[in-house]
Amino acid sequence: MLSNLFENGTESARVAWSRLPHSDEGELDGAGLLSTATSDRNGVESLDYEVIENYAYREEQAQRGKLFVIYNAGVKWFFALLIGIGTGLAAVFINISVENFAGWKFALIFNIIQKSYLAGCLIYILINLALVFSSVYIITQFAPAAAGSGIPEIKGYLNGVDVPGILLFRTLIGKIFGSIGSVGGGLALGKEGPLVHTGACIASLLGQGGSTKYHLSSRWLQGFKSDRDRRDLVTCGCAAGVAAAFRAPVGGVLFALEEVTSWWRSQLMWRVFFTSAIVAVVVRVAMGWCKSGNCGHFGSGGFIIWDISDGQEDYSFEELLPMALIGVIGGLLGALFNQLTTYVTRWRRNYLHKKGNRVKIYEACLISVLTSVISFGLPLLRNCTPCPDSDPGFEIECPRAPGMDGNYVNFYCSKDKEYNDLATIFFNTQDDAIRNLFSAKTIHEFSARSLLTFLVMFYTLAVVTFGTAVPAGQFVPGIMIGSTYGRLVGIFTVNHYKKLNIEEGTYALLGAASFLGGSMRMTVSLCVIMVEITNNLKFLPLIMLVLLISKAVGDVFNEGLYDEQARLKGIPLLESRPKYEMRKRTAREACGNQKVLSLPRVVKVADVVSILRSNEHNGFPVIDHTRNGERLVIGLMLRSHLLVLLDSKIDFQHSPLPCHSPGGSRAIRPNFSEFAKPVSSKGISIDDIYLSSDDLEMYIDLAPFLNPSPYVVPEDMSLTKVYNLFRQLGLRHLFVVPRASRVMGVITRKDLLIEEETENSATMELQSTSVRGQRHERRRSTAENGGDLERPLLNGLLVQHQR
C-alpha cells in the first residue's frame, strides 16, 4: 500500500515503495505547522536502529570509560550464553512432550485395535482433537501473536518493522505449549518454525530483563534497551532456534545470515556462532540423559537427525538426470505450494477468521478430525505386504512391535509376517515417517501407489492446515512431501538402471532438499542443514545441485514462502535489491509535492500536543533561525522522545527563548535510557499523558533531545541509491534536501583511518581531495554568521511511518 506522501510520484515509484505504511496529507494550521492524519491499519511500526546522538546520548557516552566497554562486551557474550541455554531447554521440553504424547497415543491405539479398529479410530480421533483444541484455545484466548511459524514476523523485525505482540512473554508461552498440542495432535505441520520464534522471544525477553506485566523481571538483566542491541539478541535467538530444531548449529548461523537478517557484521557472527554451539551442547546433554530412560517415550524419534551414513556409497553419471528431475519437481511443487497457501490464507483472513475466535477453534478442530480420519482410514484400504527376507546383517525388525517406532508397521494385517507400507508413513509421527523414507537397505518397502497416495493427501493437508490459528512450521512437512516424491523417483531409477547400489533413501533425501528449496528459496543454509541432519557429507554436491535447480525453477513463478506470508500479513519488508524501475526515478520524485511537518526549536507544549494528536508521524524535522533570519534544519525529533518529554515535564520552561547551552541550566534531565520504548509495544501514547492548563502554556527547547545529524540525500539522487542507503543503514527517516551551495570538504578513506594517520601520514598513497585551504575562510564566515554553519533548507522527508 502506497503512502499518500508519495501520491504524486510515478507508477514505478509506487511499485518501489508500495510496502511503506499509509498516511494522509494535511494542511497548514494557524500556528504555521502542518497538521496531518494517518491511518493505523495493522499496528505495524518501524524500529529506530539509528543511533540518536542527542545531548543525553553524548552525556551518557562521556561518562563511560574503557572498563564499561569491556563490561558491555562481556554482558553481550553472557546474554548469548543465556539465549543458548534457554532456547535449548525450551526445545528439549517441546520435543520430550511431543514424543511422550505421541508415544502414549500410538501405544494405546495399537493395544485397542487388537480388539476393535473402530474403537481405536475413535480414541485416536479424540486424543488428537483434544491436543489440537488445547493448542488453538491457547492461541485464540491467550497469545494470538503465537499463531503460525513466526518466521515472517521475526524477519520483519530484523528488517526494521515491529509487529506488536510478537516478542511478548505470553507469546513465548503460547508458542511452546501451542506447538506441543498442534504437533502432538498429528496435524500436517512441524515445530521447527515455531522454535525459531521461541528463540527470538527468549532473546528479546532476556534483553529487556524479563516481563514486568507478569512480575518476572530483573533490573540486573536490563542492560540493552535500544532497538539495535535487541536486534542483535533476536538474531542470536533465531539461530539458536534452528540449531535446536535440527541439531544443526552451523546451519542455524547460516539460516540467520541468509534468511532472516538484513544487517550483519563480524562481531555478531561470533556471538551467533557461540549461541548455536551452546544450544548443541544443551541438546546433546539432554539426549544423553534421556537415553538412560528418564524421558518416558522419548527415544530415537526425538530430536531430528536422520542418520543415513550407511546408505548409498557412490553415485554414477547416469543418476544425475533423475536427480536433476527431482530438482525440477521440487521447484514446481514448491512454487505451487506457495501459491496455494497464499490463496487459502488470503481467503481465511478475509472471510473465515473475521467471524471471531470461535470460528478459528471450529476450523482447527475440523482439520484435526479430517487429518485423523485420513491417517487412520487410508491405511485400512491398503493391502498388507509380506515382510522381505531378512539378511544376516539386517537389523530392521519386520513387522514392527506395536507402539514402537521404526519401519514395517503391522496395521490391519491378517498375518504376523506382514506390514502396511502406507501406515508406516501415515500412522506415525512425522519424524519417524521421514526416518523410514530416508532409511537405507529398505528397497521395495514402499510401493509407488502408496507413496503417490500419501503425497497427494499429505500435500493437500499441508496446504489446508497452514494458516490455522495454531503454531505451525513448514520445515518437516516440506521434508515429508519432498522425500515422498524423491522416493518415487528412486523407485523408477532402481527399476530402470537395475543397479543394486542405488538406494531409494538417497533420492528421498534429495527430494526433501528440492521441495524446501523450491518453497523457501534457501540455498546455503538449507544445504548445510540437510548435511547436518543426515550425517552424510558424500551427498553434498547432489544436494547443492537439486537446491540450485529447484530455487531457479521456483523463482520463475513467485517469491519464497516467508516473503509471500509477510506480504499477506502487511509486513513492509525492504528486500535486499531495489526494483529496476527505481533507477529511473529520483528522491524528489518519490517525495512528490508533500508538505513537511516541522517543529521550531522552542515549541509551545500546546502546539506539540496538537501536532501529536492530529497525526501519527514518528519523526519531525526541527527548524531554527540564524541571526540573519535564515531558516536552518538543526535535526530530527522523534515522536517517542516528545512523549517522554511531555510525560516527565522536567524540561518545561516559561521562556520562549532557547537555552544558552545544550545541557541547559537544569540539573535534572531524562537520561538516555528513559527514551527507549518497551520491546514489541508502542510505549506511552499522547492519550496517556495528563497536562494541566498551566503545562500547556509552557515551552520546550528541543535542541538537547533531537538528533543533530540525521542522514540526508540530495533531491536528484536516484531512488536506487536512496533505497540501498535506507535499507543498509537500517534507517527510519531520511531527509531529502536541495543541492548544497558549496562543499565543506570531502571525506576519503585516508580521513577514516584515524589510528594509522599519525604513523603512515608520510607514506600514505591515498590522497584526500578535501579543500583544506578553505578552512580558515570557512571558520571566519561561520563566526560572522553567528556561529551557525550554513545548511540547506529541508525539501522533503522520506519517512517510514507507522501505519
UniProtKB/TrEMBL annotation:
Family matches, as InterPro entries: CBS_dom, CBS_dom_sf, Cl-channel/antiporter, Cl-channel_core, Cl_channel_pln, ClC
Keyword vocabulary terms for this entry: CBS domain, Chloride, Chloride channel, Ion channel, Ion transport, Membrane, Repeat, Transmembrane, Transmembrane helix, Transport, Voltage-gated channel
Coiled coil location: none
Keyword Ion transport: yes
PROSITE patterns: CBS
Membrane-topology descriptor: Multi-pass membrane protein
Record's subcellular location: Membrane
Residue ranges occupied by any CBS domain in the UniProt entry: 706-763
Ranges annotated as biased composition (Polar residues): 763-772
Pfam family, one: Voltage_CLC
Transmembrane segments: 77-96, 117-139, 233-256, 268-287, 320-341, 451-469
Region feature (Disordered): 763-790
CDD domains: CBS_pair_voltage-gated_CLC_euk_bac, ClC_6_like
SMART domains: CBS
Family: Belongs to the chloride channel (TC 2.A.49) family.
Name recorded for this polypeptide: Chloride channel protein
Species annotation: Hibiscus sabdariffa (roselle)
